[in-house]
Design brief:
By secondary structure, the chain is α/β, with parallel strands linked by helices. The protein has a single domain, classed as 4-Layer Sandwich (Nitrilase/N-carbamoyl-D-aminoacid amidohydrolase), CATH 3.60.110.10. It contains 6 helices and 16 strands. It comes from Brevundimonas alba. Pfam families: CN_hydrolase (PF00795). Keywords: Hydrolase.
């Protein structure tokens, strides 16, 4: 299939798995009813909780998480492929009580066919005074993932990963024609950098970039930027929710555009070795 009907879900995820599923379910149903065959949700789709003790009280393994299980059932019921942008789950690593920030690709039979743990954790001190130390509660992953889909390779990233172009280039060279960037961007960084980074990663890789986002003022006190966006391989924004309210963003991906962009500027084949500056 050359044209892929997709939908990006923009959420304001609550602070518990049951409520989170109740929030996202009607949006996914709306997306499927609108014809989408590949549906993507944002980072932290299963809950958003800043407080570590409160988070640990609801934290489960991937197989036991309520929202993940019900989303798998929903994908099977609707007959769609569903990318859970990420779920916060127990990492399963002995001796490390930090969680994994894990993206899960679910096929139309409800099976998890690929997972990816966020590589780059968000440790920053913003000029506004916001301070984030994701490494205190999230164990970073250690490998990149390109998942197979009926439409081609899907590169899996999460939020802060967008600032690391080498990851996206590696995904494109490994066969990705689409790259998912599910996110919960802060307002100051979203306003300054969100669209610019998304467009840059699309141009550099010749991939479609699909970026579903958390949006608005959340129960746990944080505020996120929203503006879920689809960028084509030549860098043009082809669909966007220009607000921070929950909603569904539809787009049709013409995968021939990937071939055309890469033929016009074959940058993925032009790597050269070079000496590092001393």
């Amino acid at each position: 299939m050359t044209h892929v009907p997709v939908a990006l879900i923009q959420t304001r995820t609550p602070a518990g798995p049951a409520a989170a599923f109740a929030h996202v379910e009607p949006l996914i149903r709306e997306a499927a009813a609108g014809g989408a065959k590949l549906i993507l949700t944002p980072e932290a789709t299963n809950f958003l909780i800043q407080d570590r003790a409160a988070r640990d009280a609801v934290l489960e393994t991937q197989d036991r998480d309520e929202a993940v299980g019900r989303l798998r059932d929903l994908a099977r019921e609707l007959g769609v492929w569903l990318l859970i942008g990420s779920a916060i789950v127990r990492s399963g690593r002995d001796g490390d009580d930090r969680a994994a920030n894990r993206s899960l690709l679910i096929d139309d039979a409800g099976e998890v066919v690929a997972t990816y743990d966020k590589l780059h954790v968000y440790d920053v001190d913003l000029p506004t005074g916001e301070r984030w130390r994701e490494s205190a509660s999230i164990r970073p992953g250690d490998g990149a993932v390109v998942a197979g889909t009926p439409w081609g390779g899907l590169g899996m990233t999460i939020c802060y990963d967008i600032r690391f172009p080498q990851l996206h280039r590696a995904l494109a060279k490994a066969g990705a024609v689409m790259i998912a960037v599910p996110a919960a961007f802060t307002v100051p960084t979203g306003e300054a950098h969100w669209e610019t980074l998304l467009r840059a990663r699309a141009i550099e890789t010749g991939c479609y970039v699909l970026a579903p986002a958390q949006a608005g003022a959340h129960e746990d006190g944080r505020k996120t930027w929203g503006r879920s966006t689809v960028v084509a391989p030549w860098g043009e924004v082809v669909a966007k929710l220009d607000h921070d309210e929950p909603g569904v963003l539809f787009a049709s991906l013409d995968l021939e555009a990937v071939t055309k962009a890469r033929q016009a500027v074959p940058q993925l084949t032009h790597d050269r070795e070079f000496a590092l500056p001393s």
